[in-house]
Amino acid sequence: MAKIVAIVTDSRDHVGGGAPIFVETDKVKRESTAFLLEKILDAVAHDMKDGNFILVDHSAE
User: Fold this and answer.
1) Rounded distance, CA 2 to CA 5, Å?
2) Structural domain harbouring 27
3) Which Pfam families match (predicted)?
4) Residue 60's pLDDT is what?
5) How many CB atoms lie within 10 A of CB 20?
6) Percent of the chain with pLDDT over 70
């Protein structure tokens, strides 16, 4: 089962939930943070095209 393990966003008001949230207002910095977390968390970064990235663990349990 897939699980959201982190969110990278341009505005804290756009997201919620139990995953850690990283706010980066600059687009380049937001992408960089998402791709760095992708490696650290062994997850997949998905660009939602609305200023948000979700990092998802797709590993089978």
Assistant:
1) 9
2) 3-57
3) YIEGIA_cap
4) 60
5) 13
6) 97
